[in-house]
Write a structure and sequence with these properties.
Oligomer: single chain
Order of helices and strands: EEEEHH
Shape: globular
Strand content: 15-25%
Distance between the termini: 30 Å
Structural class: alpha+beta
Radius of gyration: 15 Å
Number of strands: 4
Strand order of the largest sheet: 1-2-3-4
Largest sheet: 4 strands, antiparallel
Number of helices: 2
């Protein structure tokens, strides 16, 4: 696992990415932080989408994440934390 500290005092470790991506650097990706939280790399969306969000703070942003990437995250997380292999998403 690769870690990187960008000077913000937050260190990231790669966790998983879109399983259907071509594995380049431009795809949806989850990272663990050293603060016990998650950072998500997503596709940027425009102000029309942002206007639909409730209570977006000035220091917050938004993006779109596919269901297949969320499924990959949930499967990996459940396997690591609970020792259970979930089947592929049913939705």
């Amino acid at each position: 696992m690769q870690s990187y500290d960008d000077g913000d005092g937050l260190s990231l470790t790669f966790y998983c990415k879109d399983p259907e991506s071509n594995q380049d650097n431009e795809c949806e990706t989850f990272y663990r932080t050293d603060r016990g939280s998650w950072l998500v790399q997503v596709k940027k969306r425009g102000p029309g989408v942002g206007a639909q969000l409730i209570g977006l703070g000035e220091d917050e942003t938004f993006g779109e994440l596919s269901e297949r990437t969320v499924n990959a995250f949930v499967q990996k997380y459940v396997r690591e934390h609970y020792g259970v292999d979930l089947p592929e998403g049913t939705g």
